[in-house]
Amino acid sequence: MMEQNRQASGNEEPEFAAFVAIDWADQTHYWSLRVPGSKQIERGAVENTPEAVEVWAAQWSARFASRPIAVALEQRRGPLVAMLSKYQQLHLYPVHPLTLAKYREAWYPSRSKNDAKDADLLLELLCQHRDRLRRLDPDTPEMRLLQFQVENRRKLVDERTAHSNRLTDLLKMYFPQLVVWFEEVSSALVGALLEKWPTLADLQKAKPKRLEKFFQQHNCRDREKTQQRIELIRTAIPATHDEAVIVSARGMALVSVRLIAVLREAIVELEKEIDELARKQADWEIFDSLPGAGNALAPRLMAAMGSRRERFESASQVQCFVGIAPVKEASGNTQVVHWPEAKTIGVLIL
Question: What is the pLDDT, as a whole number, of residue 263?
Fold first, then answer.
């Protein structure tokens, strides 16, 4: 298994001068260290600042003459990984938090927990079960930037969806007709309408000619559909006359509209940058030619695969690493094959 991991990472594992485990914390990191051939464990703590980590790394570099050091930590990405990645002598081995939690529960059924103890457990996993850990082997800076931006876009889209759902709930309280009249309440058209006429009463005061002009300015070219909307506006009945509900919901709705507008603009700009980054990659044509892979999906697929293809020897290894491979459960004469739940799918599918 260790040999498979070495081949997958694309280079041989060096002879480590020491094994270190760090339990990450917001203010202070606890660490444990063991030198090969020795059972003695050294322990300590380091403050969560770039300056303190710099001194900490320099200490090991001087002690072990810049020879390779294996480091286990509970992050694959994050501030600690970012700080440690710049030191060439440190080879990082991320450990999944669930792996550490189950390992801790196996040895401490009482579920007692502290940071120093977790550092020792991470060190044990690193020393005894390194064959089951995958060494962090970063992609090129260009590919990692694409991966980060693809993930950022996904986060912004999720934020827009959350604000859109919140806006829908608010409109259902005091202006439910908009949810029926328009397919997407997060659209620029609905946002502009609410900015001008935030309530049904305000909208019904607008003259038909003004409404026609408004819809034309927002690319509503279907005159028949525009007339239908104007008629629906004229005959609509208010959902409530409670001013407390109307005023409070209207204010929050306008906040959501403005937030959605900012997110919409940010997503468009990010999509342009993602497209430029993806097209600069050597094998962009392959992903761009995949059936059904559009402007959003093709860069996501490229980011998921990365540029270090030598990490994987087969498609099944990719499936296992990402978390979409079929799972086999066997007990006695019973065998069951099922697909992993959506929440278990790896973070590479952004």
Answer: 97
pLDDT at 194 over 60: yes
Give all domains of the chain, ordered by start, each with its CATH number. Answer: 2-137 (3.30.420), 144-279 (1.10.287.4070), 312-350 (no CATH)
CB distance 163 to 260 below 8 Å: yes
User: For residues 142 and 280, is the Cβ–Cβ distance under 8 A?
Assistant: yes
Listed residue (34, 24, 16, 198) closest to 89, CA to CA: 16
Question: Which two structure tokens, joined as six digits, stand for 220?
Answer: 């509503």
Distance of CA 344 to the CA centre of its chain: 14
Count of beta carbons in the 10 Å neighbourhood of residue 111: 8
Residue 67: phi, psi to the nearest 5?
Answer: -75, 160
Contact 13, 135 (CB under 8 A): yes
Nearest to 48 by CA among 62, 68, 65, 27: 27
Q: How many Å apart are CA 327 and CA 338, to the nearest integer?
A: 5
Residue 132 φ then ψ, to 5°: -100, 0
Confirm if 49 and 43 have CB atoms less than 8 A apart. no
User: Is residue 185 within 8 Å of residue 168, measured between CB atoms?
Assistant: yes
- The pLDDT assigned to 4 comes to 39
pLDDT at residue 167 tops 90? yes
Alpha-carbon torsion, ordered 320, 151, 7, 86, to 10 deg:
-140
**320 is written with which tokens?**
């296992």
Question: Which amino acid, 311?
Answer: R
pTM exceeding the 0.90 threshold for the entire prediction? no
> 């991966």: which residue's tokens?
147
Residue 183: partners with Cβ closer than 8 Å, 6 or more residues away: none
Q: Which of 350, 311, 326 is nearest to 153 (CA)?
A: 350
Cβ neighbours of 311 (radius 10 Å)? 20
What does the pLDDT look like over 64-100, one tens digit per residue?
A: 999 999 999 987 777 888 888 889 899 999 998 888 9
The number of helix segments (H) and strand segments (E) in the chain equals 15, 7
